[in-house]
Write a structure and sequence with these properties.
The complex is a heterodimer of chains A (267) and B (260). Chain A has 267 residues and is mostly helical. Chain A has a single domain (62-260), classed as MetI-like fold, CATH 1.10.3720.10. Chain A is built from ten helices and no strands. The longest helix of chain A is centred in the N-terminal third of the chain and has 46 residues, at 46-91. With 260 residues, chain B is α/β, with parallel strands linked by helices. Chain B has a domain at 98-161. Chain B is built from eight helices and nine strands. Chain B has helices at 53-60, 78-83, 102-112, 117-131, 146-159, 176-193, 204-210, 244-258, and strands at 11-21, 26-37, 42-46, 68-73, 87-90, 164-168, 196-201, 213-218, 223-229. In chain B, helix 4 crosses helix 5. The longest helix of chain B has 18 residues, at 176-193. The radius of gyration of chain B is 18 Å and the shape is globular. The chains are: A mainly alpha (267), B alpha/beta (260). Chains A and B meet through helix 7 and helix 8 of A and helix 3 of B. Bound molecules: adenosine-5'-triphosphate (ATP) and magnesium ion. The site of magnesium ion has 4 residues of chain B, from helix 1.
Chain lengths: 267, 260
């Protein structure tokens, strides 16, 4: 019974993916036979990618883990900062009015421009990466956390009021748990951004990390084409993984959310 | 009619009016309502939808400031009573916290008054037993039916054994059988705790069965149109629902509505 449900759900997806892969291979072959210049840079053979991957998976994973570690540190830093700022803003109206425009304005600075500045100031590629990752994380987390803290229903607040609850008790018993779903929305947006941010700083000049690998293979030209593609794909994969990790944590922390409720029937 | 008494009433409202103002309109929800409720008394507020029952209850609970009029709760202001945590309130909707399981919802007010964990657990278990939801204590609120949720809300209000119990149509989501059973349970708890109860309902039989006095409200604007004494003996028993006195009281109250 259960297996059938899974099968009926997965079969179309798998078919679609296989279909797309074949289409890609065919396109790749087509471009090559038509003698399009730099055909393999545009649509590389998948089997070649797979072969390259088996050869260089060690490098990818070791460089990727450096990137992921920096991105994670930055993500944590940005998330904590964002949560704290959101709490302060929800507590005091004037702080929100004061800080919010700056928070918005900070998002107008392109990371591409900010990264070399940060790097120039700290002269430390590790720290620069962490800070940029934190910077990209910070805003979506602040925004969503603040919205979450404000989302408590009037009736829920009235209940607290009827208990003569102190302000901080209202936060711990009502506003924080109520804000969690919204906070996780912010974290899910931020996690892949943190990875991208970290890679961006690596492109600016670092010794280790996916960004370095990407740049190097781009630099060496067509001979390293497959490796370049692989690096890009791997970077995307890391972004997806980071998103997935946040989703798993969300399920554990907030099992009561409507989207996780079983609709009944199958257990 | 005079009630001889030494103390002043537990709840005193005199000439209370409430006018809701929105941008364009004004709704006079209550007009010069004067009620006195004795300590330990069980009164019902009865009236058609929109006549201001919830409004009156919210003013008593210090959740709403009246436009004019005086209100005194056990000698002080409503705010003092609220800060002293004298109220247990059952809202018209359950207002349970989604992230707390059933039992944790019931222990919420007990956490607020700083009760020890064992004591909290014990009281919650007892109340769960009472509302017949022991089996559901580790479920989330959304896994319960509307009537079950409302029962949890009642248990939560009873948990702190409040001096003043304000209930806004607590049984309206229940079927007739559960409703009558819980009517009796409520009376038995009340006789033990001795709370002052203000009970809002649409149901005339329910008001008669439960109350010492029934306050009949009439709409547009909400006014107190009649106070009916219920001289049925206590403890009230299920058989009383079939007594001629019971029917007489119901028809008296019904007639007072037709006059409106
Ligand atoms: N927040 C509000 N703003 C404006 N008008 C309101 C508000 N709350 C209630 N009213 C109005 O006040 C009147 C009385 O409302 P109230 O909720 O007290 O009635 P009720 O007797 O409790 O009705 P029901 O039995 O349907 O619960 C209604 O006419 C309603 O439109
Ligand atoms: Mg109402």
């Amino acid at each position: 019974m259960k297996w059938q449900v899974y099968r009926s759900r997965w079969v179309p997806t798998i078919m679609l993916v296989i279909g797309l892969l074949f289409l890609w291979e065919f396109l790749s072959w087509l471009l090559l036979t038509l003698d399009v210049p730099l055909a393999q840079s545009k649509v590389p053979y998948i089997h070649e990618l797979v072969i390259t991957f088996t050869q260089y998976s060690g490098t990818l994973f070791s460089e990727g883990s450096v990137t992921l570690a920096n991105a994670s540190l930055g993500f944590l830093l940005g998330a904590v900062g964002g949560i704290v700022l959101a709490i302060l803003m929800s507590l005091t109206k004037w702080l929100e009015q004061l800080a919010f425009p700056y928070a918005v304005a900070s998002q107008m600075i392109p990371i591409l421009g900010l990264a070399p500045i940060v790097y120039g100031i700290f002269r430390d590629e590790q720290l620069a990466r962490i800070l940029i990752a934190a910077y990209t994380t910070f805003f979506p987390v602040t925004l969503n956390m603040l919205r979450g803290l404000r989302s408590a229903e009037p009736s829920s607040l009235e209940l607290m009021y009827s208990y003569a609850a102190k302000k901080w008790t209202i936060y711990t018993r009502l506003r924080f748990p109520q804000a969690l779903p919204s906070l996780f929305t912010g974290l899910k947006i931020a996690a892949p951004l943190a990875v991208t941010g970290a890679i961006l700083v690596e492109l600016m000049g670092a010794t280790k990390g996916l960004g370095v690998l990407m740049l190097r293979n781009l630099y060496y030209g067509p001979s390293h084409n497959y490796m370049f593609w692989l690096t890009v794909l791997f970077a995307a994969f890391l972004g997806i993984v980071s998103y997935f990790i946040v989703t798993v944590i969300e399920r554990i922390v907030t099992p009561w959310q409507p989207e996780f409720r079983k609709s009944g029937g199958d257990k | 009619m005079t009630i001889t008494k030494i103390d002043s009433p537990e709840i005193m409202m005199s000439q209370v009016s409430m006018c809701y103002k929105t941008n364009s309109t004004e709704v006079l929800a209550l007009k010069e309502v004067t009620v006195n409720i004795q300590k330990g008394e069980f009164v019902s507020l009865l009236g058609p939808s929109g006549c201001g029952k919830t409004t009156l209850l919210r003013i008593m609970a210090d959740l709403l400031q009246p436009t004019s009029g005086e209100i005194t709760i056990s000698g002080g202001t409503a705010k003092e009573a609220r800060l002293a945590r004298k109220y247990g309130i059952v809202f018209q909707s359950p207002v349970l916290y989604d992230w707390r399981k059933v039992k944790k919802n019931i222990t919420l007010p007990l956490e607020m008054i700083g009760l020890q964990k064992e004591e909290r657990e014990e009281r919650a278990e007892r109340l769960l037993e009472l509302i017949g939801l022991s089996k559901f204590k580790d479920q989330y609120p959304w896994q319960l039916s509307g009537g079950m949720q409302q029962r949890v809300a009642i248990a939560r209000a009873l948990a702190i054994e409040p001096e003043i119990l304000l209930m806004d149509e607590p049984f309206s989501a229940l079927d007739e059988f559960s409703r009558e059973r819980l009517n009796e349970e409520l009376l038995s708890i009340w006789s033990k705790v001795g709370s002052t109860v203000v009970f809002v309902t649409h149901s005339i039989p329910e008001a008669v069965f439960l109350s010492d006095r029934v306050f009949v409200l009439s709409p547009h604007p909400g006014r107190l149109s009649k106070v009916v004494n219920i001289p049925l003996p206590r403890p009230r028993r299920e058989e009383m629902r079939n007594s001629p006195e019971f029917y007489q009281l119901i028809s008296d109250i019904r007639q007072s509505f037709e006059g409106v």
